[in-house]
Specification:
By secondary structure, this protein is mostly helical. The chain contains nine helices and no strands. The relative contact order is 0.19.
Amino acid sequence: MKIQRNGQRFAVYFAGLVLVSMGIVLCKKCNLGISPISSIPFVLEEILPFSFGTLTMFFHLTNIALQLILVRKLWDLRILLQIPVAFLFGIVIDLLQKQISFQNEFWINQWIALVLSVLFTALGMVLMIGMNLVQNPPDGLVKVISQKTKKELGQVKIVYDIISVFISIFIGLVFLGKVKGIGIATIISAVFVGRTVTFLKKIIKFER
């Protein structure tokens, strides 16, 4: 029974990972901007010869490295277990990019994709958090910073998103001569994903 239960938890966790990845891909394809957490891989895709999924994986691995630096440990199992999650995100994002296509020239399609992006991302996050297995690397970094600075988690998340956006703007201006990927979708994702997660957590309950 325990093996079966653990198998179900991993299945739900993976489903959550796929939903988050789908949300990221829809946000990218809606052509209204990109979410703050994906802004750095998005602009780097225009500069480096790597796919968006691969760059997302590298970005997540960087978040893992920063966590290990902050906790001052080379071996922290809770953090190291995020490595396969980073690879999975990269693989799934690239697979979904090839499968998902729509005409984003029409504003109605753009906004439908953006709304679905927020819903899928939030639902995926709720499923991953609810299984209490391994954290998404960027969320793991936010949590470590929150613990080290003794600041509220939500405040740290806001600062993290702002810094990510500013880094992507800087990279775009330096290497492309323009701001890339920052738009209305960036603001909507920053404002509504967290609120949708809070709302869904009140509806979706998990057995412990």
